[in-house]
Amino acid sequence: YINGEEVASKTYTDPIDKTDFSVLIGKNHWNESYKFKGNMDEIKIFDKALTDDEVNQTYINEKEGKNFDGGNRRCPNCNVSLLLDYHMDECSGWSGNEGEVKDSSGNGYDGVAVNGANNKDDGKVCKTSNLNEGRTSPGEYTQYNGKFINTNQKFQWDRDKSFTLMAWVYPRQQWCPIIAKVNPDYSHRYQKEFKL
């Protein structure tokens, strides 16, 4: 396909050999002289053979500056560095497995949903996390076994530097911690209580 239109085709029925080699983009494994020279963008591999209409619609969407599926697209602000970015949009849902809450910042701070936390509800943007349990009073410091997301100590930030926390939040009760970072003696907490 070129510019969304089929220009050639060939039937191929043999299986693709499985090897331990990495998939390379813009370079051949065997011949150093076979290298791509130019630009590439929006590289995708789908898990099925797309139809003619799907290929053409993908081309139209991306030509208009949208995502391949027609969703709106914004280029990143390279003057701001995200530390952590949870979209809560994983299609597979959450089941308490390590790394299932994906960090879109590129820093690898994937989290895990704990005690039945899920992303089945519609959110402000696509899906949202469902953490519908909380503490009963601001003075209660017994073991908290509600639904939450744990970064498993992967995410660290320097408390001596400024930072900004942004999120769409719909609290269902008072005394709801938004984010907490606790050291071993429980002397440092970052949380917002009552209302935003």
| Beta-strand proportion | 5-15%
Task: List SSEs in N-to-C order.
Answer: HEEEE
State the secondary-structure class: little secondary structure
As a whole number of angstroms, the C-alpha radius of gyration is 23 Å
Distance between the termini: 51 Å
Segments where pLDDT lies below 50 for 5+ residues? 136-143, 185-196
Oligomer: single chain
Shape: elongated
**Main sheet: strands, sense, barrel:** 2 strands, antiparallel
What is the arithmetic mean of pLDDT? 77
> Order of strands side by side in the largest beta sheet?
1-4
Count of helical stretches: 1
Question: Helix coverage percent of residues?
Answer: under 10%
Instruction: Count the beta strands.
Output: 4
Describe the protein in words:
- The protein contains one helix and four strands, in the order H-E-E-E-E.
- The chain has 196 residues and is largely without helices or strands.
- It is elongated and about 65 Å long.
- It starts with 51 loop residues before the first helix and ends in a 46-residue tail after the last strand.
- The model is unreliable at 136-143 and 185-196 (pLDDT under 50).
Please give a quick description of this structure.
By secondary structure, the chain is largely without helices or strands.
